[in-house]
Backbone:
């Protein structure tokens, strides 16, 4: 039985008596082997994820989780660590992927890493600029911006030209209408044959 004394957790005599029992000693040994707390609990497995369906058939939420798992097309395969965050993503896309679980010893045998070498040591040997790296400006960004600005200028010029043409057509139409009103209307049956 547990009791609190002066802010500390104290074990009463009944708990001391129970601790002499062999099963409680087994529980204490199990408690000493618990994992230490960290940013996440490492389960110690590796999951091979294969995309078995076309992602474009599914909603954007599923596509977002697939992109977080680095899956964009049917048939792609990625290897991800078995962490709670990854398991959450896999649960959300479980109808689109097929999973294969490997433990770290099996992965060592497949990759050919000796048992005395840790994966952290291998990770330290990877250079910092390996992989995607930091985002950089595209060398074609300036030409792309120039193209879009020229295109917008061209569209503006076309719209201005069309507006000017519409105004000219309206003026011509008004002039024609004015000229037709100034002409005297002659009767259809009267014909003039010059001076009599």
Residues:
């Amino acid at each position: 039985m547990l009791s609190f004394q002066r802010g500390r957790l104290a074990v009463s005599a009944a708990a001391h008596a129970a601790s002499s029992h062999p099963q409680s000693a087994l529980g204490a040994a199990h408690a000493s082997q618990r994992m230490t707390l960290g940013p996440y609990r490492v389960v110690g497995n590796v999951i091979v994820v294969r995309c078995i369906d076309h992602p474009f058939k599914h909603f954007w939420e599923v596509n977002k989780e697939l992109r977080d798992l680095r899956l964009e097309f049917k048939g792609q395969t990625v290897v991800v660590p078995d962490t709670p965050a990854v398991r959450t993503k896999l649960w959300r896309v479980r109808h689109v992927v097929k999973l294969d679980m490997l433990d770290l010893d099996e992965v060592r045998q497949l990759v050919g890493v000796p048992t005395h070498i840790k994966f952290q040591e291998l990770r330290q040997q990877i250079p910092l600029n390996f992989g995607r790296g930091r985002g950089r400006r595209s060398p074609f960004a300036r030409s792309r911006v120039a193209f879009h600005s020229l295109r917008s200028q061209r569209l503006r010029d076309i719209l201005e030209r069309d507006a000017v043409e519409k105004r000219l057509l309206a003026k011509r139409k008004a002039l024609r209408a004015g000229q037709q009103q100034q002409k005297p209307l002659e009767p259809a049956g009267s014909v003039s044959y010059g001076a009599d």
